[in-house]
């Protein structure tokens, strides 16, 4: 028998809190207790072996008859989710696995007091050990396997004692958070999201140039995009100038990659400064060396004219797709070698082209100098941050550099040091970075693109995008704030995408072409001052969605929950009909006419709602539906049905009910025309100065709603202005109209007397 805290291998079974999770466990599997304040029940899985080899696979034991959800890399760059109930369902490159040890679909509500059988959630986190990286996979015998890789044939010695953390508990979100914090303490190579500085750009509406212009972006195009949105009354406060601004070129013998709406992966960075398109009066083949004629003049102009707060630009972690031209910053040609597991999931055109042409890799010992020179130039031009793309390419370049883990750690340490020095608001968005080499090496980076791209012309991709981000966030959200990517506001699926971002807790930015906007939609996301009502946490699937498959099973809705300061929000989406095809290696529509689905909403869908409720909260809640416009009083443990056709959505604001001293019940809802209504309420105080009064501080303008069981006596705004209000006897919905404030981030003082 080997023992961890609450986890043992006994009689050939991996037993977690008395539940057998794996059977037929191999004799060479050992458990080491996990030390750390965060985790009560946990241990590390290790293997006893000869400890030799740069790539080894170790079977652990059989997983059969238990539901699971895993996050695996279906592409070189990105993860997505898969659900199953046996070991052979676990794909290669699985980086996160959660298993349902006991049924948690009813939240342990086996009796009237909710004290029935507790659910059990068991989390498996394959981690880094020395110069090696572990991932999970299944085999045809239903065995869970550990695949251990260094990425360098010369790095072939390992210990093998701490390869996978296993943790367990009755709340899945707490278990995952505590597991990652335990790994944080064990590895000491990364930091949990809660310790990181979030860049302020997350709180404002933005525009990205990518889908508007792709690599044909110009300084004039940036001006046009900003002017177009500003004229419609939705002013962006940040812009991301994506791929297309840098000075790049192919080698004379290079093989060009030509595809629609993408970069030429054969090109390399030729110098750190902008190309002619971003120089004043720039002409191709000629460049002005005067800094005043460069990127700085563009940035200064758009910041002054359009009141932009932040300008970010794009670059690859290696400079450009093909790296840096050899000879600069001791760059030398390297030829990527991809992991067999990655290749089996999806052969990648970009990687194939880069492998053919090679990549100019900056000497890892000099890469801080490269980043610092690039970023200091950008900062001097007024740039506030960078979107750093193509990050997973480093895992293919470890040979000759001590392996993939060592190379990633050197690059990420240098990158974060340069960001810290040059962009004080922690201005970095990590992209194409879904490998644990990078995640477990990120001490400062706080924002990460959470899924494959928004593909405006791929009809199969849109429901897949929403589901993938939500499930990826279960894991990624422990490291950074997930970024849901840009979208088009004028698009058949625009509202669907917009609603998802409103519950995601993420930055909200579009990539509209100039003149192609839906301002009515954007007004549900953006306030008049350009700020957004951002929820507090990474948006994740509700507990009863963890093991269902809302893209493929034909019967499940996807529910995504988040918190505001005083309420919860739940987005509900019918995502059925399309998914990643493991055979054809692409997004496919598998059901042209997916059916209408009915599910339920309940207050407990907002898992942490008690954290923002009064200590005396009895579990009753008010639920407001954004599209339906209905206010429903929901007693504790009650539910309401929600029915959605294919590709439909609804957003619910969920507010704890407060009983006041005069017996009236009250709940503040928020700005009713915004997707995330409750995000507008920033302060809430009950009966502070006198009985039966409620004081609030509120952002934004438009129709503001509350629930009150009795008609308010009066409502006062900004101390003296008594407001007219509407009161619906049947529902208790009370509304007032807030005018547009003149100050940015203004807070209305509202007092309600009942």
Can you describe this structure?
The protein has 754 residues and is of the alpha+beta class. It is built from twelve helices and 47 strands. It has a seven-stranded antiparallel beta sheet with strand order 5-6-15-11-10-8-9, with helices on one face. Strands 24-23-20-17-16-27 form a six-stranded parallel beta sheet. Helix 7 packs parallel to helix 8. The longest helix is centred in the middle third of the chain and has 19 residues. It starts with a strand and ends with a strand. About 2% of the residues have low confidence.
Which stretches of 5+ consecutive residues score pLDDT under 50? Answer: 105-116
Oligomer: single chain
Q: What is the CA-atom radius of gyration, in angstroms?
A: 26 Å
The percent range for strand residues is 25-35%
Helix content: 10-25%
């Amino acid at each position: 028998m080997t023992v961890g805290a609450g986890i043992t291998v006994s009689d050939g079974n991996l037993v977690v809190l008395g539940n057998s999770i794996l059977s037929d466990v191999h004799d060479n599997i050992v458990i080491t207790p996990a030390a750390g304040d965060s985790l009560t029940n946990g241990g590390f899985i290790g293997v006893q072996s000869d400890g030799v080899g740069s790539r080894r696979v170790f079977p652990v034991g059989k997983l059969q008859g238990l539901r699971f959800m895993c996050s695996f890399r279906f592409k070189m760059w990105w993860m997505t989710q898969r659900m199953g109930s046996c070991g052979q369902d676990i794909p290669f490159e699985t980086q996160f696995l959660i298993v349902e040890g006991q049924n948690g679909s009813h939240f342990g509500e086996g009796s009237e007091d909710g004290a029935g059988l507790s659910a059990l959630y068991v989390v498996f986190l394959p981690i880094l050990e020395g110069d090696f990286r572990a991932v999970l996979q299944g085999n045809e015998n239903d065995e869970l396997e550990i695949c251990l890789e260094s990425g360098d044939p010369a790095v072939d010695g390992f210990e093998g004692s701490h390869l996978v953390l296993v943790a367990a508990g009755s709340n899945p979100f707490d278990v995952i958070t505590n597991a990652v914090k335990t790994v944080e303490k064990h590895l000491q190579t990364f930091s949990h999201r809660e310790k990181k500085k979030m860049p302020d750009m997350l709180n404002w509406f933005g525009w990205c140039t990518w889908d508007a212009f792709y690599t044909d972006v110009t300084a004039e195009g940036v001006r046009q995009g900003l002017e177009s949105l500003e004229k419609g009354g939705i002013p962006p406060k940040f812009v991301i100038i994506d791929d297309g601004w840098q000075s790049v070129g192919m080698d004379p013998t290079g093989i060009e990659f030509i595809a629609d709406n993408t970069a030429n992966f054969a090109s390399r960075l030729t110098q750190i400064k902008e190309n002619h398109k971003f120089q004043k009066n720039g002409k191709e083949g000629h460049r002005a060396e005067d800094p005043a004629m460069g990127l700085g003049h563009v940035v200064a102009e758009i910041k002054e004219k359009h009141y932009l707060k932040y300008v970010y630009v794009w670059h690859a972690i290696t400079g450009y797709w093909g790296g840096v031209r050899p000879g600069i910053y001791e760059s030398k040609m390297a030829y990527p070698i991809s992991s067999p597991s990655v290749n089996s999931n999806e052969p990648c055109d970009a990687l194939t082209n880069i492998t053919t042409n090679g990549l100019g890799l900056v000497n890892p010992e000099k890469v801080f100098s490269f980043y610092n020179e690039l970023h200091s130039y950008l900062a001097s031009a007024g740039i506030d941050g960078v979107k750093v793309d193509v990050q997973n390419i480093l895992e293919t370049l470890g040979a000759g550099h001590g392996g993939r883990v060592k190379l990633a750690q050197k690059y990420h340490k240098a990158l974060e040091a340069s960001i810290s020095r040059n962009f004080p608001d922690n201005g970095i968005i990590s992209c194409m970075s879904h490998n644990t080499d990078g995640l477990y090496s990120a001490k400062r980076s706080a924002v990460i693109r959470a899924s494959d791209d928004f593909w405006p012309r791929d009809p199969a991709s849109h429901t897949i995008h929403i589901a993938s981000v939500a499930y990826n966030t279960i894991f990624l959200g422990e490291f950074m704030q997930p970024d849901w990517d840009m979208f088009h506001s004028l698009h058949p699926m625009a509202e669907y995408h917009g609603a998802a971002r409103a519950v995601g807790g993420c930055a909200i930015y579009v990539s509209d072409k100039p003149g192609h906007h839906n301002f009515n939609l954007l007004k549900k996301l953006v306030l008049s001052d350009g700020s957004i009502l951002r929820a507090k946490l990474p948006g994740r699937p509700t507990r009863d969605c963890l093991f269902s498959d809302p893209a493929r099973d034909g019967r499940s809705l996807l529910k995504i929950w988040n918190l505001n300061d005083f309420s919860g929000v739940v987005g509900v989406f019918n995502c059925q009909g399309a998914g990643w095809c493991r055979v054809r290696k692409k997004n496919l529509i598998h059901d042209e006419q997916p059916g209408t689905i009915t599910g339920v909403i309940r207050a407990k869908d907002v898992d942490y709602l008690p954290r923002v409720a009064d200590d005396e909260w009895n579990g009753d809640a008010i639920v407001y539906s954004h599209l339906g416009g209905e206010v429903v009083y929901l007693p504790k443990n009650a539910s309401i049905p929600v029915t959605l056709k294919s590709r439909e959505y609804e957003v619910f604001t969920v507010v704890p009910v407060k009983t006041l001293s005069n017996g009236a019940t009250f709940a503040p809802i928020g700005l009713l025309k915004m997707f995330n209504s409750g995000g507008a309420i920033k302060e809430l105080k009950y009966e502070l100065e006198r009985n039966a009064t409620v004081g609030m501080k509120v952002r934004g303008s438009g129709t503001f709603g509350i629930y009150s069981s009795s008609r308010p006596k009066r409502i006062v705004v900004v101390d003296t202005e008594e407001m007219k209000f509407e009161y619906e006897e049947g529902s208790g919905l009370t509304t007032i109209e807030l005018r547009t404030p003149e100050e940015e981030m203004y807070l209305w003082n509202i007092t309600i007397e009942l």
